[in-house]
Design brief:
Elements lengths: L11 H29 L1 H10 L6 H35 L1 H7 L2 H19 L1 H5 L2 E4 L4 E4 L5 H34 L12 H33 L1 H4 L5 H25 L1 H15 L1 H29 L6
Helix pairs in contact: 1-3, 1-5, 1-10, 3-4, 3-5, 3-7, 3-8, 7-8, 8-10, 10-11, 11-12
């Protein structure tokens, strides 16, 4: 009698890698959601404002648009921070990883990230900092409303996460260098080629985020320190370029995944081909399902060969 094998039939390293990939994907999906938030609501309203040369949708729509923009921005940086901590624990603190990052705990951590994101945006409604800015045709965070609040936003929402992510990735780079130099240590590092590729992908995501958002945050910090003197001397073109460069970052992550991750490239190709030839999509889906069954059966068969006396 054929007995199907549960996931425990996988070897321990393979099962750990599969579970780590699932947990990492939860963070990636969360980051992708943060990037998509602005595309579904605020960006269409920005286009509407551009075509009508001003905002004509009312104060409520302005507040909602500004709130969702903030949700996307802060959600992105918090998720990037969560990914960096996850990779640091997996590569540099592997003994604590299994205890901290079960699938349930990962979902709870993602939920915590979004809860903190919402809580970080709520004070804007009390300060009155979500306003329409005609320079960028957007309802966004107004840097000149409150100097103290602007400094707090820049420090808590940008510099602190950047510092945490930088620390995590520096520790990972040190570990990678030690492994490549074959430095002996008491704790055996588990760095596979796939781990290194995924780490490089997320490191590039972080670097581009920092590059895209640094100019706008530095402008905000400079304006907050001395609003009356600095704000009038900020060239409009500089603010506009830094603003759109910051929000263009939401479009970059999908490109980075496609360039650096083979799985994403394969899926992108499949999606493009399905648009031109839908029948190929259904054929690949059917073939993929069949291959998936075979993959699930093969570990079970190997296990049965090792334990013939235990199966009927």
């Amino acid at each position: 009698m054929l007995m199907l094998c549960p996931p425990v039939c996988l070897s321990r390293p393979d099962w750990d890698e599969l579970r780590s990939e699932e947990e990492r994907n939860v963070f990636v999906v969360s980051l992708a959601f943060a990037d998509l938030v602005v595309a579904f609501y605020p960006y269409p309203l920005v286009l509407y404002a551009i075509f009508h040369d001003g905002w004509s949708l009312g104060d409520t729509q302005c507040k909602v648009s500004g709130f969702l923009m903030g949700l996307s921005v802060i959600g992105s940086i918090f998720n990037i921070t969560g990914i960096a901590i996850n990779r640091y624990c997996y590569i540099c603190q592997n003994f604590s990883y299994d205890r901290l990052y079960s699938y349930r705990n990962t979902l709870l951590l993602v939920a915590l990230i979004w809860l903190l994101t919402v809580l970080a945006i709520v004070p804007n409604f009390f300060v009155g900092s979500l306003q329409y800015d005609p320079r960028v045709y957007s309802c966004t965070f107004a840097q000149t409303v409150s100097a103290t609040y602007t400094i707090t936003v820049v420090v808590v929402h940008f510099f602190v996460p950047i510092a945490v992510v930088t620390f995590c990735y520096l520790q990972i780079w040190i570990m990678v260098i030690q492994v490549r130099r074959k430095v002996k240590s008491e704790v055996r590092p588990r760095i596979k080629p796939s781990d290194l590729r995924n780490f490089i992908t997320m490191f590039v995501v972080f670097v581009l985020f920092a590059i895209c958002w640094a100019p706008l945050n530095f402008i905000g910090l400079a304006v907050a320190v001395n609003p009356e003197e600095v704000a009038p001397h900020i060239p409009e073109w500089l603010f506009v370029v830094s603003y759109f460069m910051a929000y263009f970052n939401s479009c970059l992550n999908a490109i980075i995944y496609g360039l650096l991750n083979q799985n994403f490239r394969r899926e992108y190709k499949r999606i493009v081909m399905s648009v031109w030839k839908p029948q190929l999509f259904f054929q690949e889906t059917s073939r993929g399902g069949t291959e998936g069954i075979q993959i699930k059966l093969s570990p079970g068969l190997n296990n049965n060969e090792r334990n013939k006396g235990e199966t009927l």
